[in-house]
Automatic annotation (TrEMBL):
UniProt entry keywords in alphabetical sequence: Transcription, Transcription regulation
Listed name of the protein: YafY family transcriptional regulator
Tagged with keyword Membrane: no
UniProt-listed PROSITE patterns: HTH_DEOR_2, WYL
Annotated ranges, domain HTH deoR-type: 8-65
InterPro entries: CBASS_pafABC_assoc_protein, DeoR_HTH, HTH_11, WH-like_DNA-bd_sf, WH_DNA-bd_sf, WYL_dom
Domain of life: Bacteria
Organism this protein belongs to: Taibaiella lutea
Pfam families: HTH_11, WYL
GO molecular function, one term: DNA-binding transcription factor activity
SUPFAM superfamilies documented for this protein: Winged helix' DNA-binding domain (SSF46785)
Amino acid sequence: MDGNDIKRLSRLTAILTMLQTTKIVTSLTLAKRFDVSVRTIYRDIKALEQAGVPIIAEERKGYRLMEGYRIPPVMFTESEANALITIEQLVRKNSDSSLIKEYAEAVNKVKAVLSYSTKSKAELLSERIAVSPVIRVKNITNSLTTIQSALTDFKVLRITYQSAQNNDTTIRNIEPFAFYYNLQENWLIIAFCRLRNDYRMFRLDSILEMEPLEISFEPHKLTLKDFLEAKEKNFVIPDIPLS
């Protein structure tokens, strides 16, 4: 096996990993990722198909693996996968680029062995976590996993919340939308508050009680990026909770 064969084998393995860590990927994305032509990607996909990998080509969308296909040796529960996805966002804020790279590769391997439904939830969660640029990591609460499940399952949470501004206590039904870690080293949950009929931010350490409800809500049309841009534009100090 010469150098070109080794290089191609490495690329085929990486393509398979990408197919297992994302719901769908285009030939152009793969070509840019591996710095090869789209025609080369076509040949690689054909080689994987000939090797028995069940790749489905969706017209004008890209490639995906047949539902249920995954590497079997290691399995992770949904909560374990959610914990790794959350930690990944914190690792990305450290100053050591090699750690960021290696941890990202490790998380990709974890995603590769998830079931189709859990993989979709992991992807959703990874898009709904933002970390303030200046942080010092410390543990705050133990309610993250409950909120994570409600966020990815689109379930309403009933919380008893104590305002940090005036200590007033209210009971809210909220639709979890995203997580945010602010300059005061607090985890916040961004959620649509049915009491205020608007999006609000709640400090996790100010949530006195939490009860998951069997009430579903429609996925939010708003993106996390749009929310954060509007928040920064409308408020002088963007890290004040708006509960």
